[in-house]
Amino acid sequence: MPVNIPDTLPAKALLEAENVFVMGESRAMTQDIRPLKILILNLMPLKIVTESQLLRVLSNTPLQVEVELLMTSTHAPRNTPQEHLVAFYKTFNEIKHLYFDGLIITGAPVELIDFEKVTYWPELCEIMDWSKKHVTSTFHICWGAQAGLYHHYGIKKYELGKKMFGVFNHQVLTPKEPLLRGFDDHYQAPHSRYTEVRQTEIDAHPGLITLSTSPEAGVYIVASEDRKQIFVTGHPEYEESTLGEEYWRDINKGMEIAVPENYYPQNDAEKKPLVTWRSHAHLIYSNWLNYYVYQSTPYSLGEL
């Protein structure tokens, strides 16, 4: 089964052109099946780009996945057309009475700002608290992972000496963990962040377990003891061009930024990037959907 999205969402045509199996809502309504309801809190500025990235990796599953897009009401997005937001996004007040099988909280370009100084922090905290009773499992990405670890467990973030930027080798620490089923012992994943969480603080918390780390990039995948919360400090959903677009964007702004590591052949930014993380990206999201959402969620979402 494919991911089920609105017929007019721009990502639908893009993904179909890539031979990704998606289903418009009009066709999905004819199927007698209870789809998984996944809520995506999109905090990224280029929301249409992030939609395509996440829908691409959510589509690689035999389950029908129905996606609802959520934005904050306390911060006005400036890089996404208003008509797109009106047509496809809901605010928390519109959905807080509902229940969902899964929630994805994306990253956001606010890493160097204290959590409490982020304009939508109180609203995000309300959503994260709400998720504990209204969502079967929540998948946090990059800054979203740092925000979730801080809010739920008091894990602090620390500024890095330079941006963690590139594609890095990771190792599996818990090979029998369902989320990591099918992973190679070592695999690649992209990172793009200025801050980190520290292994010592996570190890000291009895409610958290580290599933995977990187010798260079540090903590990568952390799970709550009940597996209802997954924290991923990188961006497995990134497309082939994403790190390069971030690099050239910063170069054109006159910023000092190093070429993303292990991304371009011979670290030559004029060459085509080599994708080494695509299989991992599809696997982590399909494992999450299968083992931590589908296998755990009640048939009637009201039972949550």
Topology at a glance:
Elements: E1 3-5, H1 10-17, E2 22-24, H2 25-28, E3 36-41, H3 47-58, E4 65-70, H4 82-88, E5 89-90, H5 92-95, E6 100-105, H6 121-134, E7 135-141, H7 143-153, E8 158-172, E9 186-196, H8 199-203, E10 208-214, E11 218-224, E12 229-232, H9 242-252, H10 278-294
Parallel strand pairs: 1-2, 1-4, 3-4, 3-6, 4-5, 6-7, 7-12
Antiparallel strand pairs: 8-9, 8-10, 10-11, 11-12
Please tell me about this protein's structure:
The two termini are 24 Å apart. Helix 1 packs across helix 3. Helices cover 31% and strands 25% of the residues. The protein has 304 residues and is α/β, with parallel strands linked by helices. It contains 10 helices and 12 strands. The mean pLDDT is 90. Strands 1, 2, 3, 4, 5, 6, 7, 8, 9, 10, 11 and 12 form a 12-stranded mixed β-sheet that branches. It has one domain (3-154, 195-238, 278-303): Rossmann fold.
CATH superfamily: Class I glutamine amidotransferase (GATase) domain
> What's the domain count?
1
What's the architecture in CATH terms?
Answer: 3-Layer(aba) Sandwich
Could you state the oligomeric state of the chains shown? single chain
Main sheet makeup: 12 strands, mixed
- Beta-strand segment tally: 12
Question: Quick gist of this model?
Answer:
The protein has 304 residues and is an alpha/beta fold. It is built from ten helices and twelve strands.
Describe the structure using short key phrases.
alpha/beta, Rossmann fold, twelve-stranded mixed beta sheet, 31% helix, 25% strand, Class_I_gatase-like, amino-acid biosynthesis, homoserine O-succinyltransferase activity, Homoserine O-acetyltransferase
